[in-house]
Amino acid sequence: MADSKPGRNPTWAVDELVPALDLYLRSGLLDDSSAEVQELSNVLNALPIHTVHPDVERFRNPNGVALKLANFAALDPNYPGVGMSRGSRADGQVWDRYHTDRDELRRVAAGLRAGASGEEPFPVLPEEGEDEISEGRLLYRRHRTRERSRALSNRKKAEARSRGQLAGEVCGFDFQVTYGELGRDFIECHHVRPLSASGPTTTRLKDLALLCSNCHRMAHRGDPWPDVEQLQSLIDAAGKHTSVPL
Ligand SMILES: [Zn+2]
Ligand SMILES: [Zn+2]
After folding, report:
1. Each residue of 133-178: pLDDT tens digit?
2. Which residues surround ligand 1, an ion (CB under 5 A)?
3. Residue 15, in any domain of the structure
4. Does a structural domain hold residue 135?
5. Ligand 2 centroid to 215 CA: how many Å?
6. What's the gap in Å between 240 CA and the centre of ligand 1?
7. How confident is the model over 74-127, as pLDDT tens digits?
8. Single pTM value for the model
9. Centre of ligand 1 from the C-alpha of residue 108, in Å
10. N or C: where does the chain have the smaller number of CB atoms within 10 Å of the terminal CB?
């Protein structure tokens, strides 16, 4: 009940805004009696993104979903109506990122739905830096968890070893050369496929890159993430302009 003054629910995360924008661009404005709105309400309630829902009754309920569609209508120059209330800054960022890239929007939304349905459950624990990811934090968590699969990285390392030394593909850093025995066999494994790549696909070795820890951190910065060749060019370009004192 409104007069019992429950706490405010958390603001919408990118992971929730993406499937809402996907629905808006497919179906436009809908009210809370719509089956699609009710279905999205269920999806949002199944995403492991907010640990606290102070107002459980109203958390992402059909009315809240319908209001979010109206927030997107307020951003939509093609929407004929006027007077829709604007939502948060994050609404605008998601709109700007995806309204002209509907295929990508659909892929990211489908990845989130697959997590909500339990088909590909999401990790619950947060990852460092996940707040800045334009695809949302849940797909990033899944990506980072997959990267830590030991079976996969062992195969990739074995392949690299058979071709020579185990060194970072961007900068050539070899942990054993610098750290001796302690660094033997150490290298990080990075998935080069985009976060929106769908389904529990069998990862191929060519979808993996072996990177030193610095290059790996840089590979997850920026939007979109730089690939191996782009990181190599950045290092080359920076090398021309900086002088490291000896
Ligand atoms: Zn990575
Ligand atoms: Zn490196």
Report:
1. 888 999 999 999 888 888 888 999 999 999 888 999 999 999 999 9
2. 147, 190
3. yes
4. no
5. 4
6. 27
7. 999 998 776 677 788 999 999 999 999 999 999 999 999 999 999 888 998 999
8. 0.85
9. 18
10. C
Indicate if 110 and 158 belong to the same structural domain. Answer: no
Work out the mean pLDDT of the chain and round it to a whole number: 90
Cα 218 to Cα 129, 130, 171, 228, 235, distances in angstroms: 12, 14, 12, 10, 11
Whether residues 112 and 17 fall in one domain: yes
Same domain, 28 and 96: yes
CA of 205 to the centre of ligand 1 (A): 14
Q: Which ligand is nearest to the CA of 216?
A: 1
Distance (Å) from CA 97 to ligand 2 centroid: 30
Domain count, the chain: 2
Amino acid 224 reads P
Q: Which residue in 148, 150, 154, 232 sits closest to 190, CA to CA?
A: 148
Classify the C-alpha dihedral 161-163-166-169 as positive or negative. negative
> Residue 2: inside a domain, yes or no?
no
Same domain, 24 and 111: yes
What spacing in Å lies between the alpha carbon of 165 and ligand 1's midpoint?
Answer: 21
